[in-house]
Every structure is written in C-alpha cells, then in structure tokens.
Amino acid sequence: MATTTDTRGSRLRAWMLEGLSDMGKGKPSRPKETAPNAGHTGQPWYRVMCLTGVDYFSTLGYQPGIAALAAGLLSPIATIVLVVVTLAGALPVYRRVAEESPHGEGSIAMLSRLLSFWKGKLFVLTLLGFAATDFLITITLSAADASTHLVENPHLESALHDQQVLITMVLIALLGAVFLKGFLEAIGVAVALVGIYLALNAVVVVKGLWQVLTEGHVVTDWTAALTQEHGNVLVMIGVALIVFPKLALGLSGFETGVAVMPHVKGHQGDTEAQPAGRIRDTKKLLTTAALIMSVFLICTSFITTVLIPHEEFESGGKANGRALAYLAHEYLGNAFGTVYDVSTILILWFAGASAMAGLLNLMPRYLPKYGMAPHWARAVRPMVIVFTLVAFLVTWIFDADVDAQGGAYATGVLVLICSAAIAVTIAARKAGQRGWTIGFGIISVVFLYTTVVNVIERPDGVKIGACFIAGIILISLLSRLGRAFELRVTHVELDDMAERFIRDIASRTPRFIANEPDNRDAEEYRAKKDQIRADNDLPGTEDFVFVEVTVTDPSEFEAGLTVRGEVLHDRFRVLTVESSSVPNALAALLLHARDMTGVRPHVYFEWTEGNPFANFLRFFLFGQGEIAPVTREILREAESDRDRRPRVHVG
Prior knowledge:
By secondary structure, this protein is of the alpha/beta class. It is built from 22 helices and seven strands. Strands 1-4-5-3-2-6-7 form a seven-stranded mixed sheet, sandwiched between helices. The relative contact order is 0.13.
C-alpha cells in the first residue's frame, strides 16, 4: 500500500513539475547559441492579435458602461480623448517596447537593466506587483462581467439571481483547469472567439447607428443636454480631458500585446538575439488592434450614451456592466441578445486566459531567477494553482463587482504604461534620438497625469496594488532567506591556467586557501600560507592554491562562474573568481574540482570576526560575512554523501 501511495505521489509530483527548468541543478546550463530560424516559430501576427484581443477587445463588454458612469453625457468626447491618447501615446510607446524587449518581458526588463543591486530588484518587484494587479484583476473582473451577462440575461435572470460570486468562481476554476490540462496553444480558440465577438459587435453598432439616424431627436436631445450642462465646446473638451483618466481600462491590451510577443512567428533569418521579423509583425499586431479598438470605442460610447437612459447604467440597472448587451436585447431581440451574451461570456472568460498566459510568462522570468520564489515556480501547473487561489480571494473580497474592481484594474494598467513610457524615453535618450526623447517624454507626462488623477479619484486601486506589492516582496524575501544555502551556480568555466592548476594539485591532496585580497603582494600570500599551516598543523611540504572571490552584484541569485588562473610573484598560484556570493562561488569551485579530477579537495579558512548574526546578514544582503560555515552548509546541502563532500577546515 505504501509503495502504491509513493508511486502515485511521484506521478503527481512529476505531472505538477512537468517542464520545470533545472537551472543550477545537475548538468551545467549554458546559453543557447543564436542559430538562424530560431525565431521562425509560432503563429502569424494576426492570429496572435486575437490572443491579445480576448483581453483588449473584451473590454467592450464593460467599457461603454464605465465610460457612461464616469463621464455621463461627455462619454463620447472623453472616449475620443482616450483614442487620441491610445494612438498618439500608448501605441508608439509599445511599438518601441517591442523593439527593445522582443522576448515578452516588456518594459519591466528595460527598466531592470537600468538599476542594479537590491534597489533594482525591489523596483522590479514593485512593478511586478502592479503587473500582478493588472493581470489578476483582468481575470477576476472579466469573469465577474461574464457572470453579470449570464445573470442579467432575461431567460436566466430568475434562476441565477444572487449567484454571481459563485458563477464567477466557477468560471475562474474552469480557466485554471484549462491551464492545468495543458495550455500550449489556444490561439485557434482565440481567433474564433474574437472573430465572432467583433462580428456581433459590428451588428450591434450598425443597428445602433441606424437607430440614431431614424430617431434623429436622440442626437439633438443629447447635444442640447450637453450645451445646457457644460455651456460650450471648449468647456466640454476641458472637462473631457479631466475625466478621461477614468476610462483608462480602454488601454488594457498593450501590456498583454508585448507579453504574448514570443508567440509571434518570426521571419526567415530571425534569431533569438535579433528577431527582426517578430518585431515588425508585433508592431503590425499592436497597430491593427489599436485601430480596431479605437473605432469600436468611439462608436459604442456614442450609441450607448444617446440610446440608453442614464439610470440604467447605475448599479442595479439593466445596462450596468453590459451596455452593448442591453442594446442587443433592446433593438435586435432576445434571441440575438442571448447569442451576444454567450459570445461575450466566452470572450470575457477567455480574456482571463490571456491574462493568465501573461502572468505565467512574466513571473517565472524574474522571481526564481532572483531566488525570490521556490524552484518549482518555474513550472506552469503549480503557478496556475497559486494564481487561481489568489483570483478566488480577490473575487470574494470584491463580491464579484465589476465597478468595484475597475479602480484596481485601471491603476495596474496605467502604472505599467507609465513605466513603459519612461523606459522608452530613457532608451531614446541613450540612443541619441532627441526628437523621440522629447515625444516620449511628453507621453510620459500625460500618462503620469492620468495615473495620478486615477489614484486620487479611486485610491482603492493603489491600495490593492500596494497589497500585491507587499505580498510579493514579503514572500520573495522569505523565499530568498529559505534558499540562502542553496547551490545556485549554473555552470563553472575554467581558463587554461586555472584548469592546469587544479589538475596539477590533484596528483597530491588538492588544497585551496580562501583569501580575501588586500595588497596582493608577496608578503600577503606568504603570511597567509604560513598561518594556514600553523593553524591546521600541516607540514611545509604541502602545496596550496589561493582562491580569491570578488563580489559583483550580491542581489543576483543564479549565474555562471568563470575562474581564471594566474601566477603572482613567480611562485603563488591564484584562482580569481567573480560572483554574487563568496560561499557559493567557493562551494561550486570545490565541487567542480572534485568532479573534474575525481579527488576530494580541501579548503582552508580563517574564522570571521564579529557577531554571527550580523555576519549572516552581510552574507544574505552583500554576499560576504560568515564565509566558512556558510560554505560548509552549502556543500552539505549540495552533496549528501559525506565521503564525497569537499572538506572544510577553519583555524
């Protein structure tokens, strides 16, 4: 029975961790060579646009209603301002992001390259918090709006009354199940959903415009009410400029657009390092999606504003969260309206798939690499479970309310767009492109203004984002602490001199001295050798090789190790290493020397002076500190067999 249980447990574990990258474990992991056609995989850009579109275009399900609540009669004018910002601001920014970061990391990768050490890591974690807000709220908000369309359908309203939270959680659970089953390529489904949804929306828009033409008084009523409320056109435009930040959900698709960029099929001759074809086609994807969405945003905001009574947009109204569905039922009948509801429910549900794909593309690129997530976080299925559980929690907290989640969603979207605008401004400045620098700088100011106004108007958004940020930082630091003694060197490379030193001393007992370089004069090495011999009672005939580790960026977690050998003062053999952590570098070098020669090496240290706890913090934050015991602990975790474990001596 125990054997059966163990076998089942092993199978479950293997299934959960399928596809897990073993960086830092076992065989060395080296960067792949950039071969031609490396980027010539994936799908045509217009099909991948549909994967982006399930997020971007699905906002039509709730955007007109949100715009009507936020701007009232000014909704069409405020939407035009949003479209101008989209085409003249967000689109150029993300076209440049596609150039600078063509592997799906987005603006976060661009900004992370500008900052190093812990400040860079904390900055990236903050942006990841807002990205998590954006993508997770996309999942919960879209599922909540899908359930709204289901609950408000005239045929189902009585049966599903007050079941919105349960329905939303069921939709999220189904989404998680899709990814647990294996979400390798859902682009075909996305193409079908987007094609049908846009076609149905086009029918609603045409019918709505026809209704406006045949009922000419609705336009005159609207313009008269506008004039009475705001006076003149300049005042209307001014107010629209003030309220348009509340419509920021209409910008949601751009971050997803670059997140799915790795799915875009490259051209002949593309490489992973230089995927020029993928970049060109991603620009086409972004531009086409923005143009399609702009046309629909303007048309839908106009027809919903002039044809739907304002009270129906309010909470409890029949158009709340489903303005276009209201028009579909009102003017095209309940049969067409039900078909529209089904299409909307499906695309809103699948919008969560696009967001989940973005999360699974983004989070494992950073957190495990920083040591700020368990090793299993590189596997898809465990992360799907984590994100699904968090989505359940968010749905429960917000009671599956679309309007309540709008602030958090807009905040996440706007912060990411701001970071992208700032990143491309810096990139243009570094490239010496003065015109683009000024242009992107102006765009950055516009999005900063939009973000600040949105935060002031709806502070709940930044509060939710802050909760995600705090959670990510806390969990990340605890994970980093828990993995402090993990061997995290991905591979070891020796130059010819270093390899010669190690093979030479392997003919005897390989003995290394860990030395913190000071003046590097002959007296320093002579004194160190004499001290090690005296402390460990070693005869004068024993031979040594010095090892000196220079700490580069202590906030890095995983990296390769390059070892160089040199002879100093015509007699002292020294191996020099650069690493983020002294104990990890020494442990990796010792294990590599053992595997290369088949002989167990010895390493000699001095005791570190000072408070052990303070020294541990120095190791945790700066890669130095309590070197000897930490090196020994890393070796103990990496090699369970005591007879094969390198020997550590401290005197």
